[in-house]
Design goal:
By secondary structure, this protein is α/β, with parallel strands linked by helices. It is 32% helix and 24% strand.
């Protein structure tokens, strides 16, 4: 009996046209191109216009994924938007995307697992298609991180950009497939990377604005250390679950936060760094959008080919982590 294969039917991504360079940042805070490149690997990042919200970026990525998979918006049964920068507390950004792309038959939900969000959303999509509840799920990672960036804090403002990536998950007709997925979290680390203001704990007030609670806060050094440990462990766990060895992986797409985190993960896994896809140099950290943007970029460029086995691995605020093995 042939087994149903569930995988990626189409990918799309969108990066805003405006570019912020390290030279631009030198004029805003006490930093230098050399420091940023050496410590992070980032050279430029894309910045959304003031009139663009997370749903606008997400909708453009979704339209491109639909085009590439030759599907129509009405073919989508569920939309998941992974984000920490939704347009507003409610309605969900996924409902706003549904209206923008015209996918009126789809159920909609947002998912918050910070930088691991897109891998969480892919796993949810996979489960729904596997159990037969939905045929095609649109899983989007979209962020306008510049909306919550403190442009006076040189520790964080150099790191982030805006963008969106989308995948449609469904039965692939014998094509690629999702092989294995692994998710985890540890809420005890919450305050090492968070945005305190704007929710029910500290609703917006003059005081929360004055004390800059509506911006991202981060303990960079500890986040760095835990990111390396958790991403390496998550990669090992998903390989073990799949009964595969690291040598069987063609490409690794890690969350794009910092080139030094990626190379430390490669070392721990004893995987040659040449197998790691790097887009952080021209995207910065896109949180939930970082992996789908990178995946779409390298698939479109023909670098990742049909039949390649790809390991995706992420780490983010929460802390959360996730990993997935996908045959393209
Ligand atoms: N330009 C120049 N100097 C800077 C800057 C800057 N932009 N930022 C910090 N510094 C200074 C610090 O003030 C410090 O100066 P001091 O020694 O006089 O106190 C010095 O540089 C060293 O600072 P560190 O924080 O020790 O630098 P580090 O090597 O840890 O690099 C960085 C900082 C890049 C933030 C790093 O810790 C990091 O990448 N952490 C991971 C954070 C991350 O990627 N978070 C994203 C979300 S989580 C995720 O996506 C995985």
């Amino acid at each position: 009996m042939s087994q149903r294969r569930i995988g990626i039917l189409g990918l799309g991504s969108y990066l805003p046209e405006r570019i912020l360079t390290n030279a631009d940042l030198e004029k805003m805070v006490d930093t230098s191109d050399q420091w940023i490149v050496e410590r992070t690997g980032i050279k430029i990042r894309h910045i959304a216009r003031d009139d663009q919200a997370t749903s606008d970026l997400a909708s453009e990525a979704a339209r491109r994924a639909l085009n590439k998979s030759a599907l129509k918006a009405e073919d989508i049964d569920l939309i998941i938007v992974a984000t920490v920068t939704g347009d507003m507390p409610f309605p969900s950004t996924s409902c706003i995307v549904q209206e923008k792309i015209g996918a009126f038959g789809a159920a909609c939900m947002d998912l918050n697992a910070a930088c691991s969000g897109w891998l969480y959303s892919l796993d949810v999509a996979w489960q729904f298609v596997k159990n037969g509840r939905y045929r095609r799920v649109l899983a989007i990672g979209s962020e306008k991180l510049t909306a919550i960036t403190d442009w006076k804090d040189r520790n964080t403002c150099i790191l982030f950009g805006d963008g969106a990536g989308a995948a449609i998950i469904g039965e692939t007709d014998g094509g690629g497939e999702i092989i294995s997925s692994y998710l985890g979290a540890d809420g005890r680390w919450g305050k090492l990377l968070y945005m305190p203001g704007g929710g029910s704990r500290y609703p917006a007030s003059h005081e929360t604005v004055d004390t800059r609670l509506h911006y991202m806060k981060m303990e960079g050094k500890e986040v760095f250390k835990q990111a390396v440990i958790a991403m390496a462990r998550a990669a090992e766990s998903v390989l073990q679950q799949a009964g595969m060895k690291a040598e069987e992986i063609t490409w690794v797409i890690p969350h794009q936060a910092n080139i030094r985190i990626m190379s430390a993960v490669a070392k721990r896994l004893a995987v040659p760094f040449e197998k790691f896809i790097v887009t952080v140099d021209h995207c910065g950290n896109l949180s939930a959008a970082s992996i789908p943007v990178a995946l779409d970029e390298v698939v479109s460029a023909g670098k990742i080919k049909s039949g390649d086995t790809v390991l995706l691995v992420a780490f983010g605020g929460g802390f959360t982590w996730g990993s997935m093995i996908v045959r393209m």
